[in-house]
Amino acid sequence: MPSDLDAYLAEDLGPLGDATTSALFGKAGPRVRARVFARERFVAAGLAEAQTVFERFRVKARPSLLEGTLATTGGTLVHLEGPIAGILTAERLALNFIGRMSGIATQTRRLQDLVGAANPSCRVAGTRKTTPGFRTYEKRAIALGGGDPHRYGLYDALLIKDNHLAALADVAAAVKRARKAAPDLPLEVEVSTLKDALAAAQAGADWLLLDNLPPAGAARIARQARRARPTIRIECSGRLSEKTLAKYAPFSDRLSLGSLTHSARSCDVSLQLVGTAKS
């Protein structure tokens, strides 16, 4: 995180630093106590990142609950003690981490609960539809919410998509070529027909990605593919929403939604000074 943190701080501080806080308190000012607290209920995430931000400014930061657990309205998330200049300079970046990551974790938990009720072995998953430069934290938030982060980039899994196949045409040949080139990576193939699904499964794919198919059609392909290769795993994407997840979950191992990251609402968190600190 240090290199990321340096970039985030440089964006906020610019060449002159916190002009307002420096004008009022200099480089440090009095030592005070403060707390970061929740203004609503949510699944807490980003507390470790916030702690790192505050500690960069010589502020003692102590999270008061475990990430992945429920924060209550008005409940303290992080206890702080240190120079007021450090607390105020670090405040917004630290709160941005908590708000953004908690929003993703909370949405993930809500959807995972819906999916788990229909199929306890199925998980909601993220995609690569993330904020540039912030993917690692968004993926961690998904995990804290009980979801599957999925692949982190183009480097850690093979995913043969429709445009790959448009250039190669032969599904089985594409699977075999990819497997030979990267035998240790998980291999997934996006398919939309039963013919392609069976070809991918029989050629040795680990996963089938059923994209933008209606539930009944996707279920039929999943059923036939598992008969052809019992170890094949099924991921569905597209057409997924809070209203439709339960229709896909019974026959899926994973349901991926870009909305876990690109549409999550940041949670409402705030910082409050609570008194002076012992010198």
Describe the structure.
With 279 residues, the protein is an alpha/beta fold. The chain has 11 helices and 12 strands. The chain has helices at 2-13, 19-25, 47-56, 84-118, 135-144, 162-168, 171-181, 194-203, 215-228, 245-248, 259-262, and strands at 31-38, 42-43, 60-63, 70-71, 76-83, 123-125, 158-160, 187-191, 207-211, 233-237, 254-256, 269-276. The protein has a 6-stranded parallel beta sheet with strand order 6-11-10-9-8-7. A 4-stranded antiparallel beta sheet has the order 3-5-1-12, covered by helices on one side. A two-stranded antiparallel ribbon has the order 2-4. Helix 4 (84-118) crosses helix 5 and helix 7 (171-181) runs parallel beside helix 8. The longest helix is centred in the middle third of the chain and has 35 residues, at 84-118. The protein starts with a helix and ends with a strand. The model has no long low-confidence stretch (mean pLDDT 95).
The oligomeric state of the chains shown is: single chain
**Annotated CATH architecture of the largest domain:** Alpha-Beta Barrel
| Count of alpha/pi helices | 11
* Overall pLDDT level: 95
Estimated structural class:
alpha/beta
Q: Give start-end ranges of low-pLDDT stretches.
A: none
Strand order of the largest sheet: 6-11-10-9-8-7
* Beta-strand content bin: 15-25%
* N to C succession of SSEs: HHEEHEEEHEHEHHEHEHEHEHE
Overall strand count = 12
Proportion of helical residues: 40-55%
Q: For the record, what is the CATH homologous superfamily label of the largest domain?
A: Aldolase class I
